[in-house]
Amino acid sequence: MISISQVTKRYGRQAVVDDVSLELGGCGITSIIGPNGAGKSTLLSMVARLLPLDGGTITIDGLDVRTTPGSVLATKVAVLRQDNHLAARLTVQDLVSFGRYPYSKGRLTSVDRDAIARAIGYLDLEPFVDRFLDELSGGQRQRAFIAMVLAQDTDYVLLDEPLNNLDLRHAVDIMKLLRAAADDTGKRIVLVMHDINFASVYSDEIVAMRDGRVVLHGPSSEVMQSEVLGLIYDLPIDVREVDGERIGYYYR
Amino acid sequence: MLSTFIGVSDVSPLSLLEGGPDGKAAQLLVVSRLPRTLALVLTGVAMSIVGLIMQMLVRNKFVEPSTTGTAESAALGLLVVTIFAPTLPLFGKMVVAAIFALAGTGLFLLILRRIPVRSIVLVPLVGIMLGGVIGAVTTFFAYRLDLLQTLGTWLTGDFSGILRGRYELLWLALAMTVIAWIAADRFTVVGLGQEFTTNLGLRYGRVLALGLTIVAVVTAIVVVTAGVIPFLGLIVPNIVSIAMGDNVRRSIPWVAVLGAGFVLACDIVGRLLRFPYEIPLGIVVGVVGSVLFLYLLLRRPSRAH
After folding, report:
1. Where do the ABC transporter domain residues begin and end (chain A) (predicted)?
2. Which of A137, A205, A224, B45 has a 20 to 30 A CA-CA distance from A93?
3. Does A87 contact B at CB distance below 8 Å?
4. What are the angstrom distances between the C-alpha of B96 and each of A7, A121, B89, B210, B227?
């Protein structure tokens, strides 16, 4: 369980994340939604110790992210931020292998090799293992990054807008994969999502944020309500039931 | 091999055999030719690997000690020692130069952090400007104190003055590159960026500090012994990167071999073109390197970067 307790992050005077307390990762997929500047990515970054906290505490399975050595946390939680532009030219095989760094420190054992092969197979990357990342399409590259994070074999996986820059088909592919990973391997996946309908269809729980605070945290059916979404996004959102899924209509 | 047998005086396998171990040819070989070849190889290997490491640390393909103010800072450090403590042994001079190089490179990274737009070409431009400023300060004092000529030898690699006893510090540079090889995976991870590094449980700051120390020490050693070879750290790692990618553990041996080979070839060309006179190595590498570099630049847009 990821326990967030009274966490605050300020940039200058402005609190981007304002006294947030939250329990994350109790079930398969949790999505964090909210408008730009709601503090979603900042919160995720603090959980992943990529940003220091200005107040409060975050623990992952009881380990304080501020005091636990990075090498220990790296076997507990994996994170992937959005827009991963690599200057380094690496092959898919190399990139996924570096997901095992927390265990192997560069010297791969047979356990590491198995995990790498599994992650590559899981994301259907076998045809591309020897290709360089800069020779792949956006969707293939995103899959390679996700394979790296899965190879890290952590209980918790944090992904910041994993569908960013993906076309519809690739976006659906990635969400199906994440759903399967959560169901098959018991991973707890926390996503920052822009598309409320993807969040609705694929998540078990949704955290709705606005102005650095959590407005509502509950099962997705509970958050996918016209009143709740309208309040979060300042936009009339008509939520209807389509094929048993709750879908928000907000285009006009 | 070839490199040791080229020169004004006749040194060939034949003359070596005729003169025996005490002959003139043998002496020339041990005192001048062999040290020169060794110095070339060591410098070529060290400068190329240092370029590779800088490129991973800064995450930019166009940086190396002579485009980040590192070499100029080392020269400034050496000038300071030459003025204030000229009697310091070579090793002491190298240490001071290394400290200056470290400070200069640190300043470069600080400036980079303050610049919001990280355009690929802007990064080396900033470095070249910083190097220009530091270089101007150095030149001013060198001019005032009549040390301009000495300054010139630090910044343009010239191996014609290498004799036994004047290059041995370069073995320390080789030792630094061995450390770089051992830590190769860390540098690859850092090349993925600070967030990837933290995610994989490494301390970004520590790897950065280790890398910068290696870069500063090697640059300082090269400056106090043979002089910096411009472009070398840029061309060699880029060629290897195109051929086999940026997994440092895999590319380091190739960078080392290619670096040594490239320097030796350029040196032989420089010694033969105007035989019996010499063209300084730095100039040959500069000419060959800039042509190669233009080629690299022009073929780049075809890749999805």
Report:
1. 2-236
2. B45
3. yes
4. 46, 53, 11, 18, 16
